[in-house]
Amino acid sequence: MSILVLGGAGYIGSHAVKKLVEQGEDVIVVDNLSTGYRKAVDARAKFYECDIADGSAMDAVFNENDIKGVFHFAAFSLVGESMEQPLKYFQNNTGTMLTLLEKLNEHDVKHLVFSSTAAVYGEPEEVPIHEEVPKHPSSPYGDSKLMMEKIISWVSRTTDLNFVSLRYFNVAGASKDSTIGESHDPETHLIPIVLERVLGKREKLYVFGNDYDTKDGTCIRDYIHVEDLIDAHILALKYLMDGGNSNIFNLGYNRGYSILEIIKAAEKVTGQKIEFEYRDRRAGDPSILIADSGKAMDTLGWQPKHNKIHEIIADAWNWHQKNPDGWMTDEKAD
Ligand code: UFG
Predict the structure, then answer these.
(1) Closest atom, ligand 1, to C-alpha of 279
(2) Which residue would you say has higher pLDDT here, 334 or 119?
(3) Does the structure show a pLDDT above 60 at 331?
(4) Which end of the chain is less congested by CB atoms within 10 angstroms, N or C?
(5) Residue 129's pLDDT band (boundaries 50, 70, 90)?
(6) CA of 189 to the centre of ligand 1 (A)
(7) What is the reported pLDDT for 332?
(8) Atom nearest to 284 CA in ligand 1
(9) Any catalytic annotation for residue 141?
(10) Burial of 245 (0-12, 13-18, 19+ CB in 10 A)
(11) Considering only CA atoms, which of 259, 255, 261, 267 is closest in space to residue 314?
(12) Which run of H or E residues covers position 60?
């Protein structure tokens, strides 16, 4: 029996593939390589370059493999971009979900672990945020994922499908052995951008907004190590296979850092002074996102192991130093 990883060539998906194969699982990857990189995928996994929206290609994947569970990482995930191109998000994320759910039903796949996001909450009424607070997404990205959760939930009530939705806060860091890490084109995430600035890969570092209602005026986020995040996915699949009901969990560390604190921590890790400039707020950004992840700990038995911000940045730094251009070498130039 195999585990299917959709979006397994992306930043988070590739870390899941690596950990699963290291644990002896038979892993199948589907990725259309629109934002992912073939070389990020562990060579021990079986790879299909295809789009989830392509129903007949997905039929072949399910027919050729005996799939016991699915991790669904494949989506567009940029808050800022979604404010400018909302339809891209509703079509690719939400629309494609319909085809996927049809295929899961047709091929009798009963377990789905879904990548959701803290962006479903929007500007929170209280922090830390627990799963039941009202959801008011402040970006099409967040709403595209909230809609996906709702669609999965309705389908799970009428079929044999059981799902776990994991609402990630800000995922960062790289694999402990530095063989894979975060690489986007273009990069928009704070920690890799800060480290690219240190490496001289960018001329400027901009901090978007210093007039938020936070301790230093900059946005606060709950940064979670990608390795801990993947542990939670593996526990979630086990929970479903052991008969657990469909469920939703936050994944973060119940604490937050401002942008200025992240820059300070990066200065400590890299040993270099990091200059920056303030810019206007970025559209769609909530001021503060901090997870209450007690439910994941209690129900899944999830125990974070790498929650020190210096460790998260140091692991990212190790990867970036070894791969200053990320995965963007000749492959994307072809
Ligand atoms: N930021 C800067 N300068 C930059 C890049 C980012 O100031 O060059 C700021 C952003 O404005 C934001 C903070 O740093 O205030 C974090 O931004 P990221 O782009 O790193 O992350 P986001 O919080 O926008 O989004 C990430 C994921 C989403 C997820 C969200 C949940 O991309 O998928 O975390 O918190 F929904």
Answers:
(1) 7
(2) 119
(3) no
(4) C
(5) very high
(6) 5
(7) 45
(8) 24
(9) yes
(10) exposed
(11) 267
(12) helix 55-64
Indicate the pTM of the whole model.
0.97
Measure the CA–CA gap between 189 and 194, rounded to whole angstroms.
9
Residue whose Cα lies nearest atom 32 of ligand 1: it is 78
CA of 33 to the centre of ligand 1 (A): 23
Rounded distance from Cα 263 to ligand 1 centre (Å): 14
Give the H/E segment covering residue 243: none
For ligand 1, residues with CB inside 6 Å are 77, 79, 117-119, 169-170, 188-190, 193, 206-208, 219, 221, 259, 282, 285, 289
| Other CB atoms within 10 A of residue 311 CB | 16
Q: Does position 132 have pLDDT exceeding 80, yes or no? A: yes
Residue 139 Cα to ligand 1 middle (Å): 12
Cβ neighbourhood burial of 274 (10 Å; 0-12, 13-18, 19+)? middle
| pLDDT at 280 exceeding the cut of 50 | yes
User: What are the residue ranges of helices labelled H in 173-325?
Assistant: 190-198, 226-241, 259-270, 294-295, 309-322
Atom of ligand 1 nearest to the CA of 282: 11
82 and 144 Cβ atoms separated by less than 8 Å: yes
Residue nearest to atom 2 of ligand 1 (CA): 207
Beta strands in the chain (DSSP E): 2-6, 26-31, 46-49, 67-72, 111-117, 162-168, 170-172, 206-208, 220-221, 223-225, 247-251, 257-258, 277-279, 288-289
The confidence band for 334, taking pLDDT boundaries of 50, 70 and 90, is: very low
The candidate with the shortest Cα–Cα distance to 161, out of 208, 105, 120, 115, is 105
Of 162, 174, 122, the C-alpha closest to 247 is 162
| Region class of 100: left (phi > 0), else alpha (psi between -120 and 50), else beta | alpha
